[in-house]
Specification:
It contains 13 helices and eleven strands. It is an alpha/beta fold. The chain has one domain: Indigoidine synthase fold. Strands 1, 2, 3, 4, 5, 6, 7, 8, 9, 10 and 11 form an eleven-stranded mixed beta sheet that branches. A hairpin with a 2-residue loop joins strand 3 and strand 4. The longest helix is centred in the C-terminal third of the chain and has 30 residues. Bound molecules: pseudouridine-5'-monophosphate and manganese (II) ion (MN).
Amino acid sequence: MNQPPLPLRFAPAVREAIEGGAPVVALESTIITHGMPWPENVETARRVEAEVRAAGAVPATIAVLEGALCIGLEDQALERLGRSEKTAKLSRADLAACIARGATGATTVAATMIAARLAGIRTFATGGIGGVHRGAEKSFDISADLHELAQTPVTVVAAGAKAILDIPKTLEVLETLGVPVIAFGQDDFPAFWSRSAGVKAPLRMDSPEEIARAHLMREALGIPGGQLVANPIPPEAEIPAAALAPLIAQAQEEAEAAGIGAKEVTPFLLARLFELTEGASLRANIALVRANARLAARIAAALIRAEAEIPG
Ligand code: PSU
Ligand code: MN
């Protein structure tokens, strides 16, 4: 049976790093096209790449451009994606059709994990993963990101799940799916803009080395899937959960009243919160993604060191 060739297109620096066994961190592009307004989205994407480099790893921002699954984006491509207002949002379900048609789209956490695995990248930094939406018992809105974490072997660093989600239900689903959820440096699970969601994370780890060893052990045991590392937002950038709660409730009600569903829910809520907090949610979002990029770079390096220490 003939299959089409893998449609991967590597940026030269990323290819060199992967072939040379240097640490690489995957970055998603939906956060650029659907998570932040222009021009902050492009500025942030560049800063996040710079954070990864400063921490000694190579950044690989992932997107589909005219049918090519790009592993690492040129600066101009990043700018074009960030300026365009109608880029498709690609999750697991959308990836193959977009590539087969030669179309363009931004990858979510789920689709970026798939691309990272194909490219041989094991560490990925983002802002917040998708999860179980509030009211999911009626809407059935559960992000494909959770299922991806259960089957694709990538360690994803996020600032927890966005507080617009139902965090206890998100943790329940992750447990059901067998996804290790690791709070970094604290006991509590973080809530994106706030350092604590008011619930404990199932696991706590305090060093990149510990996280790397757990990643490799999962692989050795033949357990599919990745890990979620929940890195709390830096204290100086935090927005207290109590200040956000009424604004989240308002955005939620507006989404329901406007009949927003499926892929539009997350971008709608993020954009409304940006307005309702007069930009404060965006400033916090930028700070936490940068922090996640730094931690992911340390984990990527720790993975390589941990492997080198394995005898045989
Ligand atoms: N985190 C952010 N901003 C975002 C997202 C995450 O700070 O825009 C995106 C990610 O790409 C994530 C997606 O995978 O939202 C989840 O969308 P959904 O709930 O439709 O699966
Ligand atoms: Mn959804």
